[in-house]
Amino acid sequence: MFMFSVFTSLLIYFAGVYVFSSKRKHLLMVLLSLEYIVLSLFMLIIIFLIEFDYDYFFLFFFWFFSVCEGAL
Fold this sequence. Notes:
The chain has one domain (about 1-70). It is mainly α. It has helices at about 1-20, 25-50, 55-70. It starts with a helix and ends with a helix.
């Protein structure tokens, strides 16, 4: 189950990177794909932190900075 979750989140990440690189003339699509990439990285970090039983303190920092980046 762990490998399926990792592959799924990486697939989502690369789909976001593809949309980011292919829709460079449409500003709204670029911004939405950046948020999509951030959400996929957030999901990947959650999967790794749950699997290896680490503290979720880093997750809150990532969440804080991604929200601030999205608000800009």
